[in-house]
Design a protein that fits this description.
EXOC6_Sec15_N, mainly alpha, exocytosis, 27 helices
Amino acid sequence: MHSSKMRRKVVPASTDNGDSADKQDQLLLSAAICNGEDLGPFVRKAFATGKPETLLHHLRHFSRSKESEIEDVCRAHYQDFIMAVDDLRSLLSDVDSLKSSLSISNSQLQSVALPLLTSLDSFVEARNKCKNITLAIESLRTCAQLVELCSRANFHLSNNNFYMALKCVDSIERELLKKMPSSTLRRMLEKQIPEIRAHIERKVSKEFGDWLVEIRIVSRNLGQLAIGQASAARQREEELRIKQRQAEEQSRLSLRDCVYALEEEDDEGLDGFSENNREGYGNGGAGALGFDLMPLYRAHHIHQTLGLEDRFRQYYFENRKLQLTSDFQVSSMTPFLESHQTFLAQIAGFFIVEDRVLRTGGGLISKMEVENLWDTAVSKMCSVLEDQFSRMQTANHLLLIKDYVSLLGVTLRRYGYPTDALLDVLSKHRDKYHELLLSDCRKQIAEALAADKLEQMYMKKEYEYSMNVLSFQLQTSNLMPAFPYVAPFSSTVPDCCRIVRSFIEDSVSFMSYGGQLEFYDVVKKYLDRLLAEVLDGALLKIINTSVNGVTQAMQMAANMAVFERACDFFFCHAAQLSGIPLRMAERGRKQFPLTKARDAAEEMLSGLLKQKVDGFLTLIENVNWMADDTLQGGNEYANEVIIFLETLVSTAQQILPVEVLKRVLQDVLSHISEMIVGALLGESVKRFNVNAIMGLDVDVRMLESFAENQATLLSDADANELKTALVESRQLINLLLSNHPENFLNPVIRERSYNALDYRKVVAISEKLRDQSDRLFGSFGTRGAKQNTKKKSLDALIKRLKDVN
């Protein structure tokens, strides 16, 4: 076959300007027909011009021109057409021959293949039956597995073994559901599997909700138990420190008497629980503490299996956060002093549980979330404590809450929670606590002093002696006295000692376990305030307002001497409780803090004794100042004073320490000396002679002898110091009896023999001895030369002293 020729677009040839328009239209029409263009414009133009015949003529002309072309084409391809027809005829004969051959071959094939087809049909039928049987067996096996898994899932569900039930359901869904031949069973399973999972989720959520309710009670008990164990551990540490202090004291007193011993202590874990308890606790079981995390871990595991872990973690955190917020509520109907232990124990138990969940919960809660909860709790606890502390007006209440807060800090610090903010709150209220404590002690001391009758204590039994004397180290001897025992102090001393000791222990208790390792200086500062401001002020007030008579004044002075020993005990006791060596406390000790009260008591006693002495010294007016003879036995006033002083010493030495007695006697003797000099200086004595001075000399010797006789009670040095209290009267008498009174003008002699004399007093008194009466110096009548010499010397002394004045 010849291939068709492609049509080419005919473009009308350009005509010369001489061609006619008719020829041009014919060419255009021919070109349009050849190109297959629309002939509408030509038709409209022909009718528009009124020449349709011309268009018909052109179309006929074009048709004739194409007929000739067709004839040319047919003529050119005629031979090929004839040859093609001949080929078709030849092919037709070959096809007939092939058809007959195929028919023969088919007949032969049918005759041979018929038995084989029969066998093949039988084989195909048998194979289909085998496939159906195999499919049935597989379906039965699948159904058997399904039934077994369903039965197992129901068994686990009935036993609340939800995890195994979920594993069975997952196996059904993953392995059997797609292979299930029964569409009915498949639809049933597709409906029941989500319902089973929803049922398990509801059951587990209910168990978890029950656990949330139960864990609040468990947390409170757990917190109380943990804080109680911290308190017991603190008590054991305190007992160990007491033993260490006793050993140090023995070592300080005698190294050879030290006794060493090994002590075994129960080793508890960092969590404060025994090994058995910690085992159950770590595994989430109940253990001995009733601390069961199994429902929580079970719920977490089930939600993990259900693919809802993130939702459950969020649900757990939000519920625990709500519980913690609820725990922060402080009832306004119950005093915080009664509810603070429950409040703090609840929070402690909460975070003990969260610590265990964090470490064993498999990512149920993150460390960051626990830290955020703890920061919230610390902030709330600090605000509650700040508010409650600001309202408290009783030191004991503040101390009780502080102790429990510090135990809470110790307990939770074992679990890694920072408690510095809580300790800062306690430190911030340290001054307020001590001010309240000082106020309480001020009231107690005032009551103790008001109840004291300033009488010596009478102790019948040894336990009374131990309670009132030995417990404050007030004893002067290590030997146990005979009973009944009369103490040298009144009930004020042990009562105030107990108050001060309680103050020290409360102060140390407040400062201890607060994050501050060395707090002795703080305790000592407030102890100084208690002694110097409170106790000293109260004693001073009692001395100035309530002490009447020598007996009470003497008892108060005796009490102050005992208080001096008690103060040593106070500072040592504070040092021991603060855990510092005694040598450091002794090194930093200041002077006796009750000096004002002590000086006032001694001054009161001395003043009352001086009043008594002044009553006897009024007898000095009976002295014969112009006596003709020397009085050998002393003047009357001197004998009365000596009797009074001896009686005083015999009474005072029973209760007054020798140092106090010495100071009082020294003050009294000094007063007597001043009164003797004052009598000579006074206007009532116009003149006196040497006999009168010699009588005064006898009086002063009697007083000096009294002072020397106190050497058996005091030491020789103290007796000599006591004797120096009479130095002014002694030096004045020596000067008046001296043969060379002008030696007073010699600086060396004056410093050695007359250093206590005031030259103005010497002038005034010497002028009275320089009387113009004939009886003046009459006793020296047989010694005229000496009289003249002494008189001249005395006149010279008076003149020189007047010149100096």
